[in-house]
Write the structure tokens for this entry.
Amino acid sequence: MPHEMSSSRSGDPEGYQMGYDLTATRLEGESALVIQPTIPDSAPDALKNALAVRRAANLHWKCPDCGAQPQMPNHKQQRALPRAGKAIPAIFLHKDGCGCLTDDEGDAA
């Protein structure tokens, strides 16, 4: 999978350090920036595993656990969103029981 660069940003929600990677890549022939959470060392194991599955899905455009692929806006919307200064969302609808899903405490759902 194309991976040109990555940088990290950090925040502090819910008592453990959470950061974000910004990865520049190409998707469907277009430049794209993928923003996704890093995996905090202090997070519960179930949350670490869930984030690892999500990161793999984001970078490979297919969930390695449930096979979900992103739903994208249509081409007209994809052209209009950047002109309006908005990001183009890629939404994964993961299946029940997928390893990327956790409850509020970070336990596998």
